[in-house]
Amino acid sequence: MKQFLRNFNSLTNILHSKNAGTLFFAVGLLSFFSSFANSQQAFYIPQKDSSGIDSIQKATAVLLAADSSKMFSSLLSSSFNNKGLEFSMNAEAKFFAEDYIKKHTDYFNNMKVWGRPYFDLYDRILSSYGIPVQLKYLSVIESSLRSTAVSWAGAVGPWQIMSGTAREHGLKTGYYDERADYIKSTNAACKILKELYDAYGDWLLVIAAYNAGSGSVNRAISKAHSKDFWNLQYYLPPETRNHVKKFIATHYFFEGDGSLATLTGTEIQNNLPGNEEAYLHTAANCATVNIYGKYNSVVIANSLMMDITLFNQLNPDMDNVLAKGDIYPLRIPSDKMQLFQSKKMGMLRQSVELLLSPSGK
């Protein structure tokens, strides 16, 4: 394993050089190392945590260590430039989020691995309802993705749905409680989230209402004379306003950035890029994958058949970040993720060839 890591690190150093021979040699080997590094079983050992829930202990910090040290060092600062929405974290959430992330870093890093099948399932179902896939992190703060979770109030399952609400949305709550079924409960949660978004048009208010109920949010709106979460938050129960901040912090940790789901409706309207309709539709159904190396934005956009302007709005400053040797959280439409995974080695080769061509210098 140590020898592999030394070889892998040597390979990534080669990728950051501009020597033509070494670059082409590296690209030829990258496929092997990439597939090996992506094989999670090679790096992680399953075990039980203190609560008896299946967990995974890191055996080696190859990519996730770099992910934590590089990507999250600046996640509390402004992250989008004038090419797209500015996903800077609201000042009201920064102190809470910084503390929350520090306390949960190890647990969340493990969840990135053992939780992947659940996140993949959530991505498919959420996107089918036209809901931002980042709402999957609501299940993280509700239940830590556990189907067996039961709250003091009687909410059950990965989405913590109350019995009355469950029955209203087609779930059975008898001897076999469908709230604990990942597929059925996720579909029910999507219906609830869509209803709340239709009422508020603001994902932060949706999360608040999901936790405290529409009545609490409506009263807070009335008292604050505002529909902006940051203006009305102190008219909400402390648990609810912290619940929203937990969602924001968790989102930033897993995504390395914000999204439409972490902005108020006012913030979105004030920062919309030129092509509003196309951007909102695409950004609401994006997935994120961490990339590293000499990828080029034009090559990726062309390979995925995406408009380059829209691609840059979703991924501002990507070329500069990668040129510095940092990890970049690439955001692409969820329905293009499989295409990206199948073409990523070819895209890297084309990107390196472009870098080495006279016009690419």
Structure, described:
- This protein has 361 residues and is mainly alpha-helical.
- Helix content is 57%, strand content 6%.
- It is built from 18 helices and four strands.
- Mean pLDDT is 77; it is low at 14-18 and 22-84.
**What ranges have pLDDT less than 50 throughout 5 or more consecutive residues?**
14-18, 22-84
- SSE string, helices as H and strands as E: HHEEHHHHHHHHHHHHEHHHEH
Alpha carbon gap, first and last residue: 36 Å
How much β-strand is present in the residues? 5-15%
Biggest beta sheet summary: 2 strands, antiparallel
Which structural class fits the helix and strand makeup? mainly alpha
Keywords:
mainly alpha, 361 residues, 18 helices, 4 strands, two-stranded antiparallel sheet
Please render the helix and strand layout as text.
Elements: H1 2-15, H2 20-37, E1 44-48, E2 54-58, H3 63-71, H4 91-114, H5 116-128, H6 137-143, H7 163-168, H8 182-200, H9 203-212, H10 214-224, H11 229-232, H12 238-255, H13 265-270, H14 276-283, E3 286-291, H15 297-303, H16 308-314, H17 318-323, E4 328-333, H18 337-356
Antiparallel strand pairs: 1-2, 3-4
Brief characterization of the structure:
The chain contains 18 helices and four strands.
